[in-house]
Design a protein that fits this description.
The chain is α/β, with parallel strands linked by helices. The protein has one domain (23-176): UDP N-Acetylglucosamine Acyltransferase, domain 1 (3 Solenoid), CATH 2.160.10.10. Helices cover 13% and strands 27% of the residues. The chain has helices spanning 24-38, 45-54, and strands at 58-59, 64-65, 70-71, 77-79, 84-85, 90-92, 97-99, 104-105, 110-112, 114-116, 125-127, 130-132, 137-138, 143-144, 149-150, 155-156, 161-162, 170-173, 178-182. β10 and β11 (125-127) form a beta hairpin.
Length: 187
């Protein structure tokens, strides 16, 4: 059979190797808590931070989480100090997501730790961690793909897609994101 005759066969998909973390009770509990307090208009940030910590997230001080944020697994989340997470952000953290101090993830951005191996008949799950380093900014409606590191003080401009690591102190734009210039911060 030639490669052109092979087809995706989702009946053969198997991600039993993937360990979601915690019991099915824990995952189900988080599903409902996420829906009620995070992926909703619920405004009390301190209570949200309490719930994240209760479910195993590592959360620093001064963190801001806006309404309608969707977090897959808080036990795979590490957030530094003074991090901002904007409205309708989706943290699909099948792997570890680290948001370092003073980083910002703006409205509608998606941090996607999971993907599929499109060259395999079985469409295998691929998981990669995401790190947003200190002072970096993931702009509105951006996508950060599995395994990407957004360098210190890098900027991913609105509606861009990061498929590879972003260099520190650089501004990226487009799909796939390309470096367009260096970042300079003025006092």
């Amino acid at each position: 059979m030639s490669n052109m005759e092979l087809k995706t066969d989702l009946s053969k998909f198997n991600n039993d190797w993937y360990k979601k973390g915690g019991s099915s009770f824990k995952r189900t509990s988080w599903y409902f808590i996420n829906a009620m307090f995070f992926n909703s208009a619920f405004p009390v940030i301190s209570f949200k931070l309490f719930l994240l910590r209760l479910f195993g997230a590592k959360i620093g001080k001064g963190v801001v989480i806006k309404p309608y944020v969707n977090i897959k697994y808080p036990w795979n989340l590490k957030v530094g100090n003074y991090v901002w997470i904007g409205e309708r952000v989706w943290i699909d953290n099948l792997g570890l997501v680290v948001l370092n101090d003073n980083s910002c993830v703006s409205q509608g951005a998606m941090l996607l730790c999971g993907n599929h191996h499109y060259k395999k008949v079985t469409f295998d799950l691929i998981v990669g961690n995401i790190t947003v380093e200190e002072g970096a900014w993931v702009g509105a409606k951006c996508v950060v793909c599995p395994g990407v590191r957004v360098g210190s003080h890098a900027v991913l401009t609105v509606n861009s897609v990061a498929t590879t690591n972003l260099l520190p102190w650089s501004i990226y734009q487009g799909n796939p994101a390309q470096k367009i210039k260096g970042r300079v911060i003025k006092g």
